[in-house]
Give the backbone structure.
Amino acid sequence: MLKRVEQKLKALLPVRAPNSARGRVAPPFDWQPVLRRDAAAWRAARARARTGPRVLVGTTVGGYAAGTLVESLLAVALTLRGANVEILLCDHALSGCQQAMISNLRAEAIAAHGPQRKLCPACFGAGDALYRALGLRIHRLGDNVSAAERRQADACAEKIPLDAIPQFTDDGLAIGEHAYAGALRYFARGDLGDEELAEPILRRYFHAALLTTAAVKKLQQARRFEHSVFHHGLYVPQGILGQVARQEGVHVVNWAPGYRKQRFIFTHDETYHHALLAEPTSNWEDIGWNATLEKDTLDYLKSRWQGTRDWIWFHEKPQEELSAIAAQLGIDFSRPTIGMLSNVMWDAQLHYRANAFANMLEWTLSTLRYFATRPELQLLIRIHPAEIRGTIPSRQPLLAEIEKAFPQLPANVFVIPPESQTSTYAAMLPCNAILIYGTKTGVELASLGLPVIVAGEAWVRNKGLTLDASSADEYFRLLDKLPLPARLDASTTQRARKYAYHFFFRRMIPLGMFEPLTGAPPYRLNIAALDELRPGKSEGLDIVCDGILNGSEFIYPAENSAEHFD
């Protein structure tokens, strides 16, 4: 199949030599001045670490600067703590990966010859330049795949029926799931139905997932790593790296930037998308609650309206005046109103056992059909601003999908489109209850006393705060109870605030050496000397390194800490 596509598209695509294939590529941070200043100490640290626990920093995507900045710092910090750190980079080996997006690589190009011509030289060059300065061992993904394994991947990717790819497993590894999620991310869609080149591109990602599986298995069996740390934990190649590592008994740590400036979320064993769903409530429900923590929580949640303390936010000057919002929408907030919050359809499309619906679109359309039968209620849908303002703007807008199914919206349904400057918080506050699928806003609104009904993988699920549906029937039984007689009681509201404090202040670990920037990456690394990364210099960094090496919880004791960066 791939060869046929290449032949078909060959005439469309000029053949170019790889850019930067032989030239130097500037890394996002130059470690050489830092390490040269403390050269003897760094040599001694590396020598001591040779017998330490083996840690694989599985960056793989060297051109992902937001990842390499954090992971190169972790590589240095872990070495200073006695860990024998090695690096994994992709070296032009994969036919589809996280670095490829439809905004930076045309569908015709990746379908015909993958990312190798346009993206791979600079991607590998940046990562290699960054990590080579550390003097640590670097593994290339392609070096760990034999010619026979490549032929096997070629045959499998070409012959498997297309609709079998998302469910494809091998030796217990859900290889197809991450390939499919990677293709959805590339297209920035929740499904591939309308994409002309969906088949060859999904096969590219599947082929890449197969090669990653073979390479990581071989590397792990050769090097016997005890721990592995890397960003995301899903898509290709990170999702495959995590699956193989767990199967081989390796302790996996995944991370992602938090919402608050200079803070990061770390999780054990799997991507935070799954891990935070299953986090035990014992991690936070016994926090010694007091007026100071209550004020800190509410002050931060209010700052979220404008995003002044975050490096992930969507509105410069949100409209917060309720009368203006009502006039613009034509809605009457004196009538019972139910709020509904979407998330971006393509994002983290993995399998979640507790979801009441197959996907967010099915949930949305099913909810609309239900409310068409309840004219006494108003439904106010806020489409996520990240559809157009996110890192990867969605190419499957939810409003367009709604309009296809409902050319004429029911009279009791109102929609705030993603480009609207309307404040989500101001629009939801007068609502009787809030319906969510996967958005993190659920914990914020529960903290303000609003009842929340959860149909998807929102992290607020299973925390004793929300009405959680695990099937469509259960969801509609909850909707039948609307409007609810009251807001959350004082005890549940306080519990929600405890969880909000835990989520935003304790699970988001401060690393003050990362300074916020506008653009991509959203931060830069500010380190002048090796000594800044030694134990005892940064409480947040100590917690992260201890969690990687010893398995301790990635929880920052903000209630007892003197470190503040806001």
In short: The first helix runs from residue 2 to 9. Residues 2-257+538-550 form a domain with the Rossmann fold fold (CATH 3.40.50). The radius of gyration is 24 Å. Confidence is low (pLDDT under 50) at residues 5-23.
